[in-house]
Amino acid sequence: MDLGISGKTAIVCASSKGLGLGCALALAEEGAHVVLNGRNADSLAAAQAAVEAAISAGSGSVTAVAADVTTPEGREALLAAAPNPDILINNAGGPPPGDFRNWSQEDWMRALNANLYSPVALIEATIDGMIERGFGRIVNITSAAVKAPIPHLGLSNAARTGLTGFVAGLARQVAAHNVTINNLLPGQHETERLVQNYEHTAKISGQSFEQTWNEGAARNPARRFGTAEEFGHACAFFCSARAGYITGQNLVLDGGGYPGTL
To answer: What is the pLDDT of residues 153-202, one digit of tens each?
Structure first.
């Protein structure tokens, strides 16, 4: 299927690795001009090489911007590289786990800034241009915890659910202009962060990493973890010209781990 986004410009936040990189690769395969973003120069260079390899001959391009998207300066750098994006993928690392009794006001402000305010700031900076041009696709990478909160991830639960509520209202206001806003809610995917989580679990449980990892995969109805590649393809479809009647939605990508009907 031709997704109809060849030649479109896409900003993909936090895309030097993991799910963000999966999205960038899928968009590049469709011929989009992709602006990558990351804080680590080495990871960003490796991601740029991977995306360049995914670009079809004669279409698409890639630009890498080393910046922290959770800062005003980082967002300004991204927008300087792509002042008029057609596609915006909001993404940022989640806040640390813990007990809410131990979190300070500063902890709360960092979480809300990274996972609520920063995406809203980028939406504010880009959405009017999308409306004027009659095309826009905004996808926020949040978490399956929005649908099924995880007790020790209270900072993430709160910030990402707040963004979800904001999007629910805004998406209906801009839909008539062929601008859609949707959220992708990942469960466990084979990323560097998931490996680190299972390494930590193995260490405190006394089990081997392999045993802990395999048991985690077996608990999922799909009997495996997701891949960044398949997550990226779902993202690309939401960004496509074919998905113009889908907006304000929350798609859980978790292999069936969330047991609800809605």
So the answer is: 899 999 999 999 999 999 999 999 999 999 999 999 999 888 988 898 89
pLDDT digits (tens, 9 = 90+) for 203-226: 888 999 999 999 999 999 999 999
Domain extents for the chain? 9-189+231-248, 190-225
CATH class, domain 9-189+231-248, is alpha beta
pTM of the model: 0.95
Q: CA 255, CA 223: separation in Å to the nearest integer? A: 8
